[in-house]
Amino acid sequence: MIGYGDKARTQCEVVRLFRETHPDLPPLNQGTISKIEAQYREMGHVGKVPSKRQAVVDDDTKLNLLLALEENPITPARQLARDNWTYSCYFPDRFLDFPNI
């Protein structure tokens, strides 16, 4: 709806045009349009961006992993995860689906 070149619209015009085009939808405000435009300029699309999940591992588990790596630095990551029950932290919905390695 913003347009390019000679057809560029201001954010206020975009808000007005959206309200006229989609009266059945909740109205957008200029702040929403600004966020959408900023995301488009940054990423090239306005689709949902998958969030980066942080691993939930307590300090004891981290220490156990580091100690295991110190004992045997070539231990595979999957074995370390299995031995320390970190699969349940990273993939709680697929924990039972993992094959025994």
Order of helices and strands: HHHHH
The general outline is: rod-shaped
Report the uncertain regions. 88-101
Structural class category: mainly alpha
- The average pLDDT is 75
Short synopsis of the structure:
The chain has 101 residues and is mainly alpha-helical. The protein folds into 2 domains: 5-43, no CATH class; 59-97, no CATH class. It contains 5 helices and no strands.
Give your account of this protein's structure.
By secondary structure, the protein is an all-alpha fold. It has helices at 11-21, 30-43, 59-71, 77-83, 87-90. The relative contact order is 0.08. Mean pLDDT is 75; it is low at 88-101.
Helix-strand layout with pairing:
Elements: H1 11-21, H2 30-43, H3 59-71, H4 77-83, H5 87-90
What are the key terms here?
single chain, 101 residues, mainly alpha, 49% helix, 0% strand, disordered C terminus
